[in-house]
Amino acid sequence: MIGHMLGAALRWIKMQPQLDFRTCHAIDMPPREDLPNGALVIVGDRRAPKWVTIQCPCHCGTPLLLSLSKARRPQWSVRVDWWGRPSLEPSVRRTDGCRCHFWLRKGKVQWCADTGQP
Ligand SMILES: [Zn+2]
Fold first, then answer.
1. Where are the alpha helices (DSSP H) in the chain?
2. What is the pLDDT of residue 55?
3. Residue of higher predicted confidence among 112 and 32
4. pLDDT (tens digit, 9 = 90+) per residue, 89-100?
5. How much distance in Å is there from the Cα of 2 to the middle of ligand 1?
6. Residue 97 Cα, ligand 1 centroid: separation in angstroms?
7. Tens digit of pLDDT for each residue in 4-13?
8. Ligand 1 centroid, distance to 4 Cα (angstroms)
């Protein structure tokens, strides 16, 4: 039953090519060259994950590392809905490089107006 539901969910996700990010899980931090485009990787124990890592959605190739640990600042929270679509809170802002500023909601990137500006 669970397997059947999972299969249905995976088919549903594949039917949504417009998603910018899909959720993956990893126990250990993936090497930056192995970070797949369009994957949001939740790193650590599933019950207490420590990090989220994604490739910067502007395609500059920079891996972004976001801490989920309450002991660190800044700190993000990630929510994954039934369809595996990830949402991040708060927004992600790069203070160097491409200076991207975006929200990730339900697997979709929403760019902020000040993206690319110092
Ligand atoms: Zn970028």
1. 2-14
2. 95
3. 112
4. 999 999 999 999
5. 38
6. 7
7. 777 776 676 6
8. 38
Whole-number Å distance, alpha carbon 54 to ligand 1 midpoint, is 11
- What 3-state DSSP class applies to 6? helix
Q: How far is the CA of 73 from the centre of ligand 1 (A)?
A: 21
Structure confidence by residue, pLDDT tens digits, 11-41: 766 666 679 999 999 999 999 888 888 999 9
- Beta-carbon contacts of 22 under 8 Å, excluding residues fewer than 6 positions away, are 13, 38, 39, 40, 84, 85, 86, 107
- CA-nearest of 14, 18, 94 to 61 is 94
DSSP 3-state percent helix, strand, coil across the chain (nearest 5) = 15, 35, 55
Give the residue from 16, 33, 34 showing the smallest Cα distance to 24.
34
Q: How far is the CA of 14 from the centre of ligand 1 (A)?
A: 25
Ranges of each domain in the chain: 2-111
- 32: CA distance to ligand 1 center in Å? 14
Look up the pTM and report it.
0.82
